[in-house]
C-alpha cells in the first residue's frame, strides 16, 4: 500500500480507495487522512449502506488485510479486520471450533474495559477495529462433532398464511428444542410472478429430531419441502445469491414483541403491492426471523442490549432502477409500520448494524446505556471522526 499514492489521489479531489495490507498501514492511512482533514469510511465485506463516501473522502478497504490464527491452547481465534464470515468459518472448521455470540474483543477486560463494553454493540461509532480475538468453543457443545445443523425448506402458497403462521409459532415456541429460522414472503423463481411463503427452520439436532420438530409445517402440505444437513463451514453459503455485488440492495431490521399473525398477513399484502406497482423490485423479500428464547445465562455485559429480542422483521429491498429509490423506501417504511401495530413507540427496536434512522433509543435501550455511550463517545471520539452517532 503506497501512502504517497493515496496522498496524490487526495490532492486531485477524487474518491480514492486505500487497501492497507498491515495494521501499521491502517494506522498510517487514518493519521494522514486526519492530518488533511479528509473524511473516511472503513470497508470490510462492503455490504453496509455506510461503506461509501463522496469524492471528498477516502475509503479504507480492508479486503487485503485478512487472516485467521487459531490458538487451540487458549481456545481463541485472532481475526483480521477484512476477513469475511465464510473465511472465518472455513478456518475454524479443521479445528472443530465455533464462535460464541458476544465474544468479540479488541481491548481487554482490564485495559480500557469501558471501551470494550462500547465496542461490543457500538464499535462502528468508536473506531476502526483492526483485529478481533474471539473465544471459541468445541463443536461437541452443539450436540455433534461436525458442527452440523439440520435445515428445513417448506414452500407454501399465500392462501395458507394462517396455517403457516400457526405452525411457525408452534415451532418457535417449542420448549424442548432450541431452534431458529425465517418465514419469508418472496416471489417464486424463475419468473418471479407468484408470491410464496418460504419457511426455513433450523436446529442443531439429528435428522429424525428435526423432522419431528418441523412436523407442523409438513402437516399443512407444502408445495415443496426438503430437510438437509449443513456443517459450520457452509452455514452462510445460502446467502451467496444475495451477496453478489451490483444493483441496489438495502437490508433493514426491526425487533418485534412476538409473533402476530394479523400483522404478518398485512406484511404479505404490502409485499404484493410492492411487486404489483414496481416490477423492478420483484426480487425484494419481507421476512420474519425467529430465535427460540435462550436458556443459558448471558454473563457478558455489552452495549448491544438486544439479545433478548426473539423475533425480527427483515426487509430486503432489491431493484435496478435508481428512479425507484423513493417508492421502494416508502414501502420499507410501511412494512415496518405494519409489523409494529400494537407496539408502543417506546418499545420500538431497530437493529444496531442495519439502521441509523430514527431515534437512538430504538437501537440502544435504556437511559443508562445511552448516557454511558454518550460519555464514552465524548471521551474517545469527541470530534465525531467515526460518525456523530451518540454524540
The best one-word shape is globular
Q: On the 0-100 scale, what is the average pLDDT?
A: 86
Number of domains: 3
H/E element order: HEHEEEEHEHEEHEEHHEHEHEEHEHH
Strand order in the sheet with the most strands: 11-8-10-9-13-14-12-15
The portion of residues assigned to helices is: 25-40%
Largest sheet: 8 strands, antiparallel
What class, by secondary structure content? alpha+beta
User: How many runs of DSSP E, i.e. beta strands?
Assistant: 15
Q: Output the CATH topology of the largest domain.
A: Vanillyl-alcohol Oxidase, Chain A, domain 3
**Annotated CATH architecture of the largest domain:** 3-Layer(aba) Sandwich
How far is the first residue's CA from the last residue's CA? Answer: 33 Å
Q: Radius of gyration, rounded?
A: 22 Å
Spans of at least 5 consecutive residues with low confidence: 1-14, 96-106
User: Strand-residue fraction?
Assistant: 15-25%
Quick overview:
With 391 residues, the chain is an alpha+beta fold. It has helices spanning 3-11, 23-35, 85-92, 113-122, 161-172, 207-213, 215-220, 240-243, 261-277, 325-339, 360-363, 367-380, and strands spanning 17-18, 40-43, 58-61, 68-71, 76-80, 97-105, 131-138, 149-156, 180-187, 195-203, 224-230, 248-256, 285-291, 311-319, 349-350. It folds into 3 domains: 3-61, no CATH class; 68-143 and 373-380, Uridine Diphospho-n-acetylenolpyruvylglucosamine Reductase, domain 3 (2-Layer Sandwich), CATH 3.30.465.10; 149-350, Vanillyl-alcohol Oxidase, Chain A, domain 3 (3-Layer(aba) Sandwich).
Amino acid at each position: 500500500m503506497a501512502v504517497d499514492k493515496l496522498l496524490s489521489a487526495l490532492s486531485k479531489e477524487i474518491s480514492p480507495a486505500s487497501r492497507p495490507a498491515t495494521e501499521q498501514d491502517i494506522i498510517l492511512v487514518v493519521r494522514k487522512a486526519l492530518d488533511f482533514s479528509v473524511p473516511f469510511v472503513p470497508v470490510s465485506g462492503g455490504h453496509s449502506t455506510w461503506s461509501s463516501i463522496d469524492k471528498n473522502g477516502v475509503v479504507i478497504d480492508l479486503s487485503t488485510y485478512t487472516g485467521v490464527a487459531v490458538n487451540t491452547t487458549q481456545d481463541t481465534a485472532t481475526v483480521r479486520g477484512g476477513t469475511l464470515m465464510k473465511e472465518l468459518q472455513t478456518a475454524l472448521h479443521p479445528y472443530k471450533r465455533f464462535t460464541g455470540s458476544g465474544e468479540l474483543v479488541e481491548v481487554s477486560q482490564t485495559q480500557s474495559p469501558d471501551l470494550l463494553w462500547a465496542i461490543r454493540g457500538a464499535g462502528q461509532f468508536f473506531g476502526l477495529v483492526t483485529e478481533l480475538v474471539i473465544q471459541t468453543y468445541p463443536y461437541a457443545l452443539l450436540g455433534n462433532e461436525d458442527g452440523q445443523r439440520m435445515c428445513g425448506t417448506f414452500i407454501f402458497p399465500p392462501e395458507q398464511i394462517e396455517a403457516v403462521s400457526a405452525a411457525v409459532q408452534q415451532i418457535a415456541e417449542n420448549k424442548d428444542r432450541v431452534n431458529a429460522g425465517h418465514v419469508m414472503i418472496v416471489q417464486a423463481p424463475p419468473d418471479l410472478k407468484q408470491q410464496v411463503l418460504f419457511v426455513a427452520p433450523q436446529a442443531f439436532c439429528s435428522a429424525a429430531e428435526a423432522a419431528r420438530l418441523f412436523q407442523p409445517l409438513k402437516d399443512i402440505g407444502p408445495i415443496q419441502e426438503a430437510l438437509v444437513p449443513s456443517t459450520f463451514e457452509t452455514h452462510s453459503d445460502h446467502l451467496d445469491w444475495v451477496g453478489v455485488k451490483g444493483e441496489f440492495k438495502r437490508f433493514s431490521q426491526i425487533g418485534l414483541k412476538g409473533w402476530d399473525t394479523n400483522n404478518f398477513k398485512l406484511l404479505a399484502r404490502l409485499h404484493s403491492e410492492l411487486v404489483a406497482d414496481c416490477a423492478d423490485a420483484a426480487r425484494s423479500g419481507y421476512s420474519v426471523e425467529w430465535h427460540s428464547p435462550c436458556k443459558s445465562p448471558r454473563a457478558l455485559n455489552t452495549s448491544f442490549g438486544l439479545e433478548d429480542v426473539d423475533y425480527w422483521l427483515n426487509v430486503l429491498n432489491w431493484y435496478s432502477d435508481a428512479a425507484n429509490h423513493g417508492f421502494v423506501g416508502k414501502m420499507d417504511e410501511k412494512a415496518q409500520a405494519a409489523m409494529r401495530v400494537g407496539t408502543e413507540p417506546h418499545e420500538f427496536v431497530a437493529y444496531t448494524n442495519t439502521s441509523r434512522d430514527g431515534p437512538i433509543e430504538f437501537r440502544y435501550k435504556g437511559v443508562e446505556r445511552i448516557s454511558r455511550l454518550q460519555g464514552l463517545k465524548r471521551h474517545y471520539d469527541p470530534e465525531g471522526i467515526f460518525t456523530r452517532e451518540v454524540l
